[in-house]
Structure formats: C-alpha cells, structure tokens
Amino acid sequence: MASDFFIGESLVGDGNAAPMSAASSFAMTVTESFGTEGILRELMTRDELLDLFRRSGALLEGHFRLSSGLHSPGYLQCALVLQHPRHAEALGAALAERTHRLRPTVVMSPALGGVVIGQEVGRGLGVRAIFAERQDGALTLRRGFMLGENDRVLVVEDVLTTGGSTRETIQVARASGAHVVGAASIVDRSGAPAGSDRTIALGVPFVSLLEIELPTHEPDRCPLCAQGLPVVKPGSRPVAT
Predict the structure, then answer these.
(1) How far apart are CA 170 and CA 183, in angstroms?
(2) Order of strands across the sheet with 71-76?
(3) DSSP-assigned states of every residue in the chain
(4) Residues 178, 181, 185, CA angle at the centre, nearest 5°?
C-alpha cells in the first residue's frame, strides 16, 4: 500500500486566485493514458493527484482566508475535482483501500465539503454514508440520520487543515453513542509531522492520500496582508471567529 505523500511547494502568489502551473508532462501522460482506472490501479501517485488538482483548476494561489480564520497563499478547492464522478470514485476507492482494516460500518462527513468524498468512500467500503451539518453554528445529525453503540464510524472530509471539522464530527458521532475508529481526508495540509502526531491530535487513526505544505498565518501576522493584497474567502463554511 502506498505511503502518505509530502510535497513542499512555494505558493506565494500575486493576490489573484488562479490555477497553479501545469504538472509535468510525464504525470499528464500517465493520467491521459490510463485515466482514473490507471490512477486507482496505482493508488494515486503524488504526481497523478497533483495533476488532477491542477487540471481541474483546484490548486490555487493567491491570498485566502480559510475556514479556520487563518490566511494562506494556497488553497485546494476539492469540489472542482470531485465534480467529475470518475475522479470522485477513484479518490473514494483509494481512501477506502487505506481504511478498510479499521472495519468501519458507516462513513460520516461534515457538510458541505466532505459529503461527496464521504459518499464515495462509503461506496468503496460497502457501507452507508451520512453527514453532519450545521444548525445554529454547530454540527449535528439531521434528516433522520442515526448512529448507535454498534456503529463503527470513519470520519471523512476533503481537506484537513487545523482538524477542527474532523474533531467536531468525531464529537457528534461519539455523542450519538457510536465508536469512532478513524479519520481520513483526500489532502492533509495541516503541516504536522508525519506519523502519530495527527493521530494524537485527533485521538483516532488518521490517513490521507496527499500531504501538502501550504503555509498559514494568523491574520495579524500575515505577510500578504502586510503587502496590501486583497483576501478571498473561498469554500462554503463560515470563517471561524
């Protein structure tokens, strides 16, 4: 099974949200020759994953305010990759391959960003997929979704930055009496050292397909703000205050 991937790229931009530069011709040739079936067969090499993001316009550079409230010169808009069903299926199957040993009986994701990939991981594992959504600012189970003490929950989202959404989803599952067996994401941009550090921070085993280092800054210490570059709030979740 493939190990976690790590890259360290400088993404300091000019303030305009634009796709990153094209991937190497080798990576593009691999993807174009084999499509998502080839990606799934190789369990998502680093170049193939980055190529998916770049070709979908999902790997952006500029000046962004993240859901955590932090500022960053880089942003990953997974929805632009997941809008293609075959890409979503391949990513979900790859995460399912990496988490099936945890023996989850249900996948649970925070809405909105985790819903599509959670569904695909559930498909890959052959289990049901549910999601928590915000009501009065807090994540909660709605729409008749239920968990019980016999459920083994895998929490899945698209991108892990601070881990706040994942921890909140874990709390919702535990409050329902379920046992949380692990967490997973397509991308880990937390910047935490590899290995057990993420597991310790979340309190459960954690896996991702891609580790990528994108710097983050507190707003009052953001070098992009100091340069006077306009800040953009992408995504669907309100900014933490």
Answers:
(1) 9
(2) 18-19, 59-65, 71-76
(3) -PPP-EEE---B--SS-EEPPPPPHHHHHHHHHHHHHHHHHTT--HHHHHHHHHHTT-EEEEEEE-TTS-EEEEEE-THHHHTSHHHHHHHHHHHHHHHGGG--SEEEEETTTTHHHHHHHHHHHTSEEEEEEEETTEEEE-TT----TT-EEEEEEEEESSSHHHHHHHHHHHHTTPEEEEEEEEEE-S-PPSSHHHHHHHSS-EEEEEEEE---B-GGG-HHHHTTPPPB--SSSPPP-
(4) 115
Report pLDDT digits (tens) over 164-179. Answer: 899 999 999 999 999 9
Buried b / exposed e over 105-130, threshold 16 CB at 10 Å, is bbbbbbbebbbbbbbbbbbbbebebb
pTM of the full structure: 0.71
Q: What is the pLDDT of residues 22-39, one digit of tens each?
A: 222 222 222 333 344 444
Question: Can you read off the two tokens belonging to residue 84?
Answer: 């293609």
**Inter-helix orientation angle 85-99/25-41, to 10°:** 60
Q: Is 221 left (phi over 0), alpha (psi -120 to 50) or beta?
A: alpha
Structural domains in the chain, CATH included, are 6-226 (3.40.50.2020)
